[in-house]
Every structure is written in C-alpha cells, then in structure tokens.
C-alpha cells in the first residue's frame, strides 16, 4: 500500500537528550574492533584538537535510528516495519560526536516514493548538542518491501 | 581536526591502504549489544532462513563502520570525516564456522573538492565473498 505523500516535510518533535558516555564509546569501538586511541584515550583525542574522546563516525546511528522510531511507528503513516530494510545511510558532520555530549534529534520525512511496489522513505535526523549547535545530520533511506501477493 | 595527510600530497587516484576486516558470529553478537540492534537476522540462523536469507547476515551498519576505518586510519583523525554515505547493496553472509566472513575494503581519492577547505572525496569499495556489499560508498575528508 502506497504511503501518504502528505507526510513529506513532516517534522517530529526533538527527542529527549541522549548523553554520550565515554564507556559507551569504548564499547562501540571495541565492538567494531577499532583500536584508534581517539575513541578511548582523552590525551590522544586532545592531541588531535578534540576536547574529549570522540565517537567513531557511525556511532550516532544508534541515536538517530531510535529517534526515527517516531516516524517508523507513527500509526498515521502506517509503515509496515516487518518489511523494512535499510537502503542507504549517510552522515554529514559539523564535528564528531564526543563524550559528554547531550544530543537531541529532530526527525523529518524528506521523501516518500513507491517503486515496483516497494515503499521508500527518506528520513533526515538533525542532531544538536545541549547548546543548540549542530553536530551531525543523518540521512536514512528505508525500503518497505512489497507485500507478496497470494 | 588534525589530519596527518596533507591535501597537497594527494592526487585524484591516490590509493588509501586497503584493509580486510574479519567478522564472525561472536563479532555480530558483540556489535548487536554495543549498537542496540538486536534484529535476529544478525544472530539467529533459523529466523534468518525463515525470512528468506541464505544465513545470518552482518548488520549493514557494522559493514559501514568497518569500511570507514580505511579512511580514518589513513587520515589519522576520525574527526576529519566531514561526510560519509553508503548504499547497502548485498548482505555480508556470516556462516557459523571458525572463519566467518571477510570484508575487504579499498579506497581511492576520487576528487579534490575545495582547495580552501582542503576537502577530498574518497570512494570506497567493500567486497565480501566476491560480492560488492556497499554501493555509492563515499566520504568527504578534510585534510591538513
């Protein structure tokens, strides 16, 4: 079933702040097997000009995807999440996410398309820190695969 | 940002050191925990097969996280990455054996974008079992 085009441009309220912890960054860096000291060693991060340890580039997805749940689970939109696969992902950074950040995400539906019976939805998640400054924008394309006809 | 590579030292076509990243079932369980993505297609073979997959597959975001390491290791400062995007074209299939799967990543400088901002576009290629697993995989990197 095609999704309602009138949802394009809809912006959802900002999420409650997510506080980025240094041990969560360490856990994520270890899970991807990345020993870069900028993720775990404050002095190494400072030597690169960062005020504290920074997170790997894709770390923020866990935060923006949770925020996108407002869209995905919007009963009025009616996306069938059981059929959803991740199509594309992009990040545009003003600065890296770092320990101590309190990040709020504002999600907007950028586009809705139907191709070959698949619903395709583009969600933009703007991530701001506690001062209101922009940190990163996440662009997430989700594809809800066509329901198989009996 | 303090990238260790100078904008002046790279040309279109400059290759970044390629890397191969192993992934097995334990890697996926660990990534699920760290990322909060507990979709059973990434750890439950029975479930994966029921939804039509050949076997358990890696999280697309795990593959995305591995691929950019070629860029962050090269640039020195992960904060030098200004943009990064991928398309998930094929899954990385992770069999339940000692070996698991390999993600082979290569990258090269595709364009010098801005002489003042000292940004370059790096195009990445990520392969697993002979299949291209990421498409349109590009990063914009601020160099020194």
From TrEMBL, chain A:
One Pfam family this sequence matches: FAS1_DH_region
Coiled-coil stretches noted in the UniProt entry, renumbered to this chain: none
InterPro entries: FAS1-like_DH_region, HadA-like, HotDog_dom_sf, UPF0336/Enoyl-CoA_hydratase
FAS1-like dehydratase domain residues: 6-137
HAMAP family, sorted: UPF0336
Family, per entry: Belongs to the UPF0336 family.
Name of the protein: UPF0336 protein HEK616_73790
Lineage: Bacteria, Bacillati, Actinomycetota, Actinomycetes, Kitasatosporales
TrEMBL record, chain B:
Gene3D superfamilies: Hotdog Thioesterase (3.10.129.10)
Boundaries of every MaoC-like domain copy: 14-109
Protein family per UniProt: Belongs to the enoyl-CoA hydratase/isomerase family.
PANTHER family found in the cross-reference section: (3R)-HYDROXYACYL-ACP DEHYDRATASE SUBUNIT HADB (PTHR43841:SF3), 3-HYDROXYACYL-THIOESTER DEHYDRATASE HTDX-RELATED (PTHR43841)
Protein name: MaoC family dehydratase
Originating organism: Streptomyces bugieae
Lineage of origin: Bacteria, Bacillati, Actinomycetota, Actinomycetes, Kitasatosporales
